[in-house]
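Exam revision sheet. Question 4 asks you to relate a sequence to its structure. Input first:
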Amino acid sequence: MDNKYQQISLHIRNEIIALAVDGMKLPSIRELSTHFNVTTITIRKALKVLEEEKLIEVRGTSGTYLTEKARREKNFLNFGLLAYDIFSLGNPYFNRICRGFNSFLEERGAGYLQLLTIPAAGKYRRAGLQRICGMIEKGLVNALAVSIPLHADELELLHDTGAPLVNINRRTKNRFPYVMENPRKGAELLYEAFLKTGAAAPVLLAPVEIPENVILGTDVIHLLTDLLNGGGVCRKRLPVFRMPDEELLPGAGIGYLEKAFAEHPETDCVFAMGDVLIREASRFIHREKRRIPLIAYSDEEPVEDALVIAPPLRKIGRTAAELLLKQIQTGKRDMEETGIELEPYQIKSLSTNKLILIAPCAILS
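Answer key, structure tokens:
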């Protein structure tokens, strides 16, 4: 779900229809356009999706109203997935977790997944969390998965509502049930892939800055660096090139690769993390006709002539949904197994291009 109008239609379905009474009037197209900061054309397309699902009806010049079907559907179980904004679905990492979560609910007819959002800024996020708590207390959200890093007191605020809760943000572990990837296994698989290449002077491309004090989740880069250093690849021979979020545009990665090769002509292997960098690293290597190995950490698509290690993103989503449903069915929020770490796996070999399952996780659902 990459189109803005689809994401807006989902948001309207989740947060407006959740409050539905039959015949309730929606805000005007212009009001919705201002609220979401998009064009009226985008809003019309979003409303068209809901109209085709018979959740809303347009009554001439009178306006747009919710239907009886919308009122009925709000009575199903609603599983909330907490994110920073409604366009989070455009992020490949979040998108795959969301798709895994939703596929589990659909297979079991367990309920609906609704995207809930709070502002990222500390000044406003508390109010956003209190709004989510209000929705839980009104029965509009029956269970909640947290996909963003929250402080312990913020998680406690959500936990105090009494709703089933699971944390799927890979930077945070705490006493609440969590599901995340195993970063150490990911780093080990990347290191094993590097050893197979016989290379000695790799470079590493990463999409964002990873704080030095990060110990969990996104420390795949740090763990990999430690393994390479322990294996005799010193830090000065492992350049780490990072791009800030705002530069994650088509073509941006090419410049970073050119810089890496210009500054380190001895490079004989490339690690790439982040979908934009992976795709552009592959294009750059083929364009320059360099016969060097590319090791990618992503499950977006098998990359041409690359060894791909995949984080179990869809499996994380499915497992989180399963854990929440189990909490609902048993009435117990404090599970015996409070933490689940799923292992990444290798999905493509440099030499054979065959799919290889290394860990007991589902491959690309």
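Marking note for examiners. The radius of gyration is 23 Å.
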